[in-house]
UniProtKB/TrEMBL annotation:
This is Ferritin Dps family protein. GO terms for molecular function: ferric iron binding; oxidoreductase activity, acting on metal ions. InterPro entries: DPS_DNA-bd, DPS_DNA-bd_CS, Ferritin-like, Ferritin-like_SF, Ferritin_DPS_dom. Gene3D superfamilies: 1.20.1260.10. It comes from Tolumonas auensis (strain DSM 9187 / NBRC 110442 / TA 4). Residues 21-158 form the Ferritin/DPS domain. Belongs to the Dps family. It comes from the Bacteria.
Length: 158
């Protein structure tokens, strides 16, 4: 049975390109989610309680965000990536190969939050050219949240 063509006012090649960009954004967001959850489980030291709770708030928010991003990719008619292997190929956020000290966890999460923002910003020229207001709205909200989270994490380092 042939599938129903997608006719949402965005050219097919633009839809596919936007979905590919959102897949990178999803991979960064999911990798940051995993890193934040990992740190939540393994943080130690005098800031334990503060960081344990802060990281939980952050990974909980990210777990909701990845769903919104994946659903936007699906709305554009493309399957969303969802395996470790796919995310590892698409993300710019490095994995940890050991449990960092608390201060390094904070620095790594600042870098991760900022990396997600840069990926989101890089998609705007294409999204604006294609007139994809829904993706622009999603990314604008995500950028605001990641910039605020990065600021809060940086504040712990001062």
């Amino acid at each position: 049975m042939p599938h129903q063509p997608i006719n949402i006012g965005i050219a097919e090649n633009d839809r596919l390109e936007i979905a590919a960009g959102l897949a990178r954004f999803l991979a960064d967001s999911y990798t940051l989610y995993l890193k934040t959850h990992y740190y939540h489980w393994n943080v130690t030291g005098p800031m334990f309680n503060t960081l344990h709770l802060m990281f939980e708030t952050q990974y909980t928010e990210l777990s909701l965000a990845v769903d919104l991003i994946a659903e936007r990719i699906r709305a554009l008619g493309v399957f969303a990536p969802g395996t470790y292997q796919e995310f590892a190929k698409l993300t710019v956020i490095p994995e940890d190969n050991h449990v960092p000290k608390a201060q390094d966890m904070i620095k790594n999460l600042v870098a991760g939050q900022e990396a997600v923002v840069r990926t989101a910003r890089s998609l705007f020229p294409l999204i604006e050219k294609a007139g994809d207001e829904a993706s622009a709205d999603l990314l604008t909200q995500r950028i605001q949240l990641h910039e605020k989270t990065a600021w809060m994490l940086r504040s712990l380092l001062e």
